[in-house]
Amino acid sequence: MTQRVLVTGANGFVGKAVCKALLQRGDSVTGLVRRAETGEPGVREWCFDAADFENLEARWPADLSCDAVIHLAARVHMMRDTTADPLAAYRATNVTGALRVAGAARRAGARRFVFVSSIKAVAESSAGWPIAETDQPAPTDPYGISKLEAERALIDYGARSGMEIVIVRPPLVYGPGVRANFLQLMSAIARGIPLPLGAIDARRSLVFVDNLADALVHCTTDPRAAGQTFNVTDGRDLSVAELARALATQLHAPARLVRVPVAVLRLAGRITGRSAPIDRLIGELRLDSSHICERLGWYPPHTVEHGLLETAAWYRATH
């Protein structure tokens, strides 16, 4: 059965993959975006540029109804946030804004709201065992705190309104169009730059963007997803060294990985004032994603190797 789905942040990295997956399913898709761009052909574009979705309900198009929402739009994690009050800024977009979208969509007929959160709502690292959905959340930065507060506010709204809320917590997402640290890593490998990653054996969960998009589509359609929280990963965790070697293979570049002891990397982080990014690089962050498999019968349709192949092919074609 096809649906009418509203996707916020539809022109973003994940949003484009989600729209494509919905269109392939035969759904009618509306993309709620801040500025007009070239999105997926077949997506109805609704440009709405008010901060934090203020007055969204009043400006809702009269001819737009929807059955479900996939909410991707967010104030994203920034390494150097110069805002005077970062937590307030994150809350305004990620909590208040999300509730405004949910309320407006509910009054337009939406029965389900799929909220794309982050594993940062729970933790920055795992301590020897994968993080499960039932683990006690302990976010450590304003972004993670705002995502957790949004999850709880939406669950409360769902209980009051009858709207079905689904929470999805991905780890780092990669794929064609990826930016930030993953792109920097690919760029360094492609240029043959020696990297001090050879001794890092801590494993980290990742999710290929098309795997995440497929999971989000399932979360809009499967009745068993209502009221659930899901970790979504590729199902196979790589160490940073393994990831770098795999990328080097796909980029047709040498893997120049220097075995620098982890203790030396930590010391370098303290000396340079970059302890937080170094800790993220060398620390373990594994997610247990068995719940979505057991509850929905969902498994990642693409392997890690396929995801890295697609990502490297995009990089070679565009850089």
UniProtKB/TrEMBL annotation:
<dbReference type="InterPro" id="IPR036291">
    <property type="entry name" value="NAD(P)-bd_dom_sf"/>
</dbReference>
<dbReference type="GO" id="GO:0005737">
    <property type="term" value="C:cytoplasm"/>
</dbReference>
<protein>
    <submittedName>
        <fullName>NAD-dependent epimerase/dehydratase</fullName>
    </submittedName>
</protein>
<dbReference type="GO" id="GO:0004029">
    <property type="term" value="F:aldehyde dehydrogenase (NAD+) activity"/>
</dbReference>
<feature type="domain" description="NAD-dependent epimerase/dehydratase">
    <location>
        <begin position="5"/>
        <end position="232"/>
    </location>
</feature>
<dbReference type="InterPro" id="IPR051783">
    <property type="entry name" value="NAD(P)-dependent_oxidoreduct"/>
</dbReference>
<dbReference type="InterPro" id="IPR001509">
    <property type="entry name" value="Epimerase_deHydtase"/>
</dbReference>
<dbReference type="Pfam" id="PF01370">
    <property type="entry name" value="Epimerase"/>
</dbReference>
